[in-house]
Backbone:
């Protein structure tokens, strides 16, 4: 699960960088310095969350960041809402499939028949 979730968060860092660039270049925000500050802070939190995925509270932090990325649609526009919803789906899928793989690895294989 750790690899899948960290990958989703890593790709999300790139998307937030591009969304921040878009918001500052198309006039969506009045204060570009503040927008870059918030965008960089969100990117830093995503990187921290990617490192915390295997630890206690890491998945919760990831969910909180998914909500923050969705909330960025208020500034960037409806396109970020679509992207944010896609990342929520990817995040849920990474947790679901990752936990299934972890359980399968933890289960001993059936004894071979001779």
Residues:
């Amino acid at each position: 699960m750790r690899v899948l979730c960290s990958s989703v968060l890593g790709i999300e860092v790139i998307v937030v960088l591009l969304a921040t660039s878009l918001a500052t270049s198309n006039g969506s925000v009045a204060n570009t310095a503040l927008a870059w500050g918030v965008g960089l802070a969100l990117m830093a939190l995503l990187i921290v969350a990617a490192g915390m995925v295997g630890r206690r509270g890491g998945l919760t932090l990831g969910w909180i960041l998914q909500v923050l990325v969705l909330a960025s649609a208020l500034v960037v526009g409806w396109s970020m809402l679509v992207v944010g919803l896609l990342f929520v789906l990817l995040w849920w899928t990474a947790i679901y499939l990752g936990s299934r793989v972890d359980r399968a690895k933890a289960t001993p294989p059936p004894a071979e028949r001779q």
Remarks:
- DSSP finds five helices and no strands in the chain.
